[in-house]
Amino acid sequence: MLEFCGLSAQRADALREAQREILQMIARNAPRPQVLRRLCELVEGMGPPDARCSVLLVGGEPMRLRTGAAPSLPPAYCKAIDGILAGPAQGSCGTAAWRREPVIVEDIATDPLWEHYRDLALAHGLRACCSIPVFGAGSRVLATFAIYYAAPRRPAQHELALLQTAVALASVVIEQARTEEQLKESWTKLELAQNIARLGYWEREIASDRMHFFGETNAILGLPASISVDRTVFEAHVLEEDRHVLAWSEKEAAGGRVPGPMAFRIRRADGSVRHLFAQHRLLEDASGAPLKMVGTLQDVTEQRQTEHTLHHYLSQLAFLAKAARKVNSSLSVEELLQAIADNARSLVDARVAVAVILADEDGTRALERRSVSGRRAGGSAPDETWLEVPIVSGDGRLLGSIRVTDKEEGEFTANDERVLTQLADLAAVGLENARLYAELEARVRRRTQELEQSNRELEAFSYSVSHDLRGPLRAIAGFASLLREQHCESLDAQGRHYLERILAGTQRMSALIDDLLELGRVTRVEIRRADVDLTEIARTVVARLCEQAPQRAVEVTIEDGCRVHGDPRLMEIVLENLLDNAWKFSAGRAPARIGFGARSFAGGHAFYVRDNGVGFDLRYASNLFGVFQRLHAAEEFPGTGVGLATVQRIIQRHGGRIWAEAQVERGATFYFTVAEG
Amino acid sequence: MAERYILLVEDNPDDEELTLLSLRKRSLGHDIVVVRDGVEAIDYLFGTGPYAGRDVSQVPTVILLDLKLPKLDGLGVLERLRADARTRTVPVVVLTSSSQEADVRACYDLGANSYVRKPVEFGAFVETIGTVGWYWAQLNAPPPVRGPC
Fold first, then answer.
1. How close is the nearest chain A Cα to the Cα of B79, in Å?
2. Higher pLDDT, A102 or A519
């Protein structure tokens, strides 16, 4: 009991009464907030009518103050100051906790300690405040106890005594609650640890071969604590088929080896089978002789189950991944359905699995299709267990279902359903893929037909060009020639000039038709590869060119031994075109130089045809190999603009590449490669 | 001995005129009979239709046959000629604009004696046609004329 100095007898009685009430509450284990609240009310009841009390709990780093009880203070005020930091100028309570000593503020309106909270306090009619720190064990500040007044004043002597009593009671209340909490926590941890570990202990004395069991052994065996467990009792619980494990490491101990752990099963009193795991050490006496074995016993049933389940999940996951690959590589619906059914059966250990796709509403899949995996031995058993999950498309349409029946062992579980649902999702993706693939295939087929059709049309067209255009052209050329031969005198110079233009035009057109037909032919003709002597072809072509223009002075260099595996006729066309060009564009040079040969470069080796002719500007040659592309005026150098297109077509059909290097007035070199056929 | 003639099967009047002109530049000593489609060619040779009553033993020295013809095309004509004993050995020169490999092969398969592409350029055309006419009419020894059997 506390001493009450300077209190009237009446006040002292009231205080004693209050003190008793609080202590009774503590003894009753009443909740801390309730006790603190009552403490505030009691102090307020014994003070002046405007007195209002609060208990702020102190804790944390940095130190903060939280409302523990403040039954009469305005809630808005409490809320505003809840959680303030302790500090040298933090109102009465924050400062008291900081200074670890009572702080008496007679006028909140003027005291600098209230600078930050002045307006808040005044707004709630609080004018004076006295706060006293509450200490706990080890002089820790547990809380502050404060009394507020509505007018400026300091507490009277008897009020201070009252406050001291309240502070002492608050200390008991808070400390006790805190201890209890800590205790509870420790117990919880301990229980938890024991529960989790479920450890039993055992000892075997080597000399006497006596065994003792302690700790949770009884609980592990499912025996009441009153029964004392010895070796006989213990071994009686071990499953017969596992008893051979229990050598209790005698041999190892005898042989001086490090004993290994043991895993075995027991049947508990209630009949349940549990998995145990035992580890042990050999203890030796001072002389190094084996003294005893000490070891632990642990029930690892749940752990094993978890591991088993985990293993099961992992294998299912691996299976799903495999199924996903299969589903993604199955391109026909039939294949896919079979894969789904097979996988469904394996995934959940069912005897039979059926994958069904429904007919489409739009009739594109008019017939329902199904695949069955596994066969029942006899007819369908009436009590078969089954599980069915829907196959739903990404946009929510029901595509079909997967149904498994007759699990190999036990019944289907929630996990089986989850796994099947995932398989159904895979199936939906696969079905969608199969549909897209079928669509794609149909589109390709259609496109191929269209292309073949247009190819045929193109061939018919070239034929028609060959035959039909030549006829009228021959007529124009023929009659124009006759006009020139037989009626020349009746035409004036201008008329004769026009006639010449007509005849020149017919010649160009004739060449153009021939070249276009050639281009069409090299595009379509089947490539028949053989060993081709390019050197030989180049010599023949050049000989012909020399024969046609014996007046030209041309230095020709042709490298020996240029051979290639290609279509002989087409290779001839390549060299004819390239050498014709070289011949043509070097016409103004004296001497003209033309070369043919092979050159190695990083990607393999290329053949080249080179001349020292007029060349061209590569900037304007972006479409050098396009049909009708000409870099020179027709008057200057005749040509149809089809030759290089034909050459490129041939090279491309041989899997090769063609390119040019050129400079204006410095000649041109054309390179080409031919892929091995 | 009856009059010797060359049968020209040609539907294009331009080509007909140019061909006749080319042949007449040479003195071949032959008449030139022109028919303008495949059916007319058959009728002429076998004395049918408008040519009923014609003496079909009078076979041409050479037939210059275009491929693209109305009604019955050149290949059809060729086939019919070669299927008939009376015309089986008559030399047929296919004169055409086509240089299609398939056409050339088909003609020879059906028993054409020669395949000549008509050049577009007039000089070359006159030269080519003239040479063909001269070769078959002058140089070539025709198969012996069959008597009535």
1. 21
2. A102
Please report the domains of chain A, with CATH numbers, ordered by start residue: 9-186 (3.30.450.40), 198-299 (3.30.450.20), 335-524 (3.30.450.40), 528-672 (3.30.565.10)
Cβ contact (<8 Å) for A470 and B120?
A: yes
Using CB atoms, pick whichever of B97, B100, B122 lies closest to residue A470: B97
Predicted local confidence at residue A256, as pLDDT: 61
Owning domain of residue B117: 5-137
> Between A255 and A201, whose confidence is greater?
A201
Which ipTM score applies to this complex? 0.77
Nearest chain A residue (CA) to B103: A463
Tokens for A132?
């006293």
Element (H, E) at B95: strand B92-96
Domain-located, residue B68: yes
Measure the CA–CA gap between A97 and A36, rounded to whole angstroms. Answer: 18
Residues of B in contact with A506 (CB under 8 A): 120-121
The answer to whether residue B142 is domain-embedded is no
Domain count, chain B: 1
Query: Is B118 a member of any domain?
Result: yes
Q: What's the CATH number where B14 sits?
A: 3.40.50.2300
Q: Do B120 and A474 touch (CB under 8 A)?
A: yes
* A478–B118 CB contact, under 8 Å: no
Q: Do A477 and B121 touch (CB under 8 A)?
A: yes
Q: Please, are residues A432 and A394 in contact by the beta-carbon 8 Å criterion?
A: yes
- A577 or A417, which is more confident: A577
User: For residue A382, what pLDDT is reported?
Assistant: 52
Size of interface A-B (CB pairs under 8 A): 57
Alpha-helical (H) ranges within chain B are 13-24, 38-46, 74-83, 101-109, 122-134
Interface contact flag, A475 B18, Cβ < 8 Å? yes
pLDDT digits (tens, 9 = 90+) for A257-308: 666 788 888 998 888 888 888 887 777 777 777 778 788 888 888 777 777 7
Buried residues in A609-647 as b, exposed as e (16+ CB within 10 A): bbbbbbbbeeeeeeebbebeeebeeeeebebbbbbbbbb
Contact A466 B99 (CB under 8 A): yes
Write out chain B residues lying below 8 Å of A470, CB-based.
97, 118, 120
Structure tokens of B58? 């009078």
Task: Kindly give, in sequence order, each residue whose CB lies less than 8 Å from that of residue B45, ignoring residues fewer than 6 positions away.
Answer: B7, B56, B59, B81, B86, B87
A471 in contact with chain B, both atoms CB, cutoff 8 A: yes
